[in-house]
Amino acid sequence: MKNIATMTRRGFIKLAGFTCGYAVLGFNVTREAFASALEFVGIRQQSVYDADSKIYSIRKSQENPMITKLYAKDGFLHEGPCGHESHHLLHTHYYDRSDRLKALKAKGIKLSL
């Protein structure tokens, strides 16, 4: 059993749910419900993986024909994935706008984010 101080939120919620289920239903019913929930998650996860493998023929972005055409020698971004033009067009930049936000709040403007 983990120390409650080092337990994550998710672990705490799982433990609390299991404890409440035990208190209401008893140990066997709670254990069976927990096992069936885990089984359902496993079945769902496997069905998603199976659907992805059967439906999508291109599973990696580097295998996409449009991407390979884009980065080809005669393509738009012929310098390659780490070239100057691709970096300029495809990468984002962070601009610190916290001073503007503080100025608006100082004026009394309430923002709902």
Automatic annotation (TrEMBL):
Domain of life from the UniProt record: Bacteria
| Record's keyword annotation contains Lipid metabolism | no
Iron as UniProt keyword: yes
Cellular component GO terms held in the UniProt record: periplasmic space
Question: Where along the sequence do coiled-coil regions lie?
Answer: none
Q: Which terms are listed as keywords in the entry?
A: Iron, Iron-sulfur, Metal-binding
GO MF annotation: an example:
iron-sulfur cluster binding
List, for all copies, the residue spans of the domain called Iron hydrogenase small subunit: 35-98
Name under which the protein is recorded: Periplasmic [Fe] hydrogenase small subunit
